[in-house]
Specification:
two-stranded antiparallel sheet, 6 helices, single chain, 2 strands, Arc Repressor Mutant, subunit A, mainly alpha, elongated
Length: 137
C-alpha cells in the first residue's frame, strides 16, 4: 500500500506537534518544517487543511504557531486520513461480469476493515511507537 506524500507529511507534522507542543505550547511553522524536512510553503497548505477539520489550532503573529486541538490519544488515524484525502477511504470497484459482484464484495469487506483499523488507532501510536532511531556500527 502506498500513501500520498501529503498524508505522510500530515502524520509526521501531527506527531511532531504531539511531541513538541505538549502542555498546549505553540510550535512555529519554521520549527515544524525544519524538524520534519517539509517545505514550509507546502506545509502551510497541509496545516490549513488540518486546522479547518479541527485537528489543530493556530495563532497568528510573532508568538504564534500551531498546536493539537485535542490530545494525541483522541485523534484517530481515520480523522487524519479523512482530513487530508478522504477519497482514499472509498473503494471503487466495478460489479460487471460474472465475478464482478464477488470481487467487489471482497474489496468492500477489506475497505471496511481498513476503516475500522484507522478508527481504532490514534496519533499517539506515531508518538510513542517503536520508531526509535537505529545506529549501525
Amino acid at each position: 500500500m502506498k500513501i500520498s506524500r501529503k498524508l505522510e507529511y500530515a502524520c509526521r507534522v501531527l506527531a511532531q506537534l504531539g511531541q513538541q507542543g505538549q502542555g498546549g505550547s505553540l510550535v512555529h511553522i519554521d520549527r515544524l518544517a525544519e524538524a520534519e524536512h517539509i517545505p514550509s510553503n507546502y506545509l502551510v497548505q497541509i496545516l490549513n487543511g488540518l486546522r479547518v477539520k479541527g485537528l489543530i489550532v493556530s495563532k497568528r503573529g510573532r508568538q504564534g504557531g500551531y498546536a493539537l486541538a485535542k490530545s494525541p490519544d483522541q485523534i484517530t488515524l481515520f480523522a487524519i486520513v479523512e482530513a487530508i484525502e478522504s477519497e482514499s477511504l472509498k473503494v471503487s470497484c466495478g460489479r460487471e461480469g460474472d465475478s464482478g459482484a464477488r470481487v467487489a464484495e471482497v474489496w468492500d469487506t477489506l475497505s471496511g476493515r481498513w476503516i475500522e483499523s484507522l478508527k481504532e488507532r490514534t496519533l499517539e501510536s506515531f508518538i510513542s511507537g517503536s520508531g526509535s532511531k537505529m545506529y549501525y556500527i
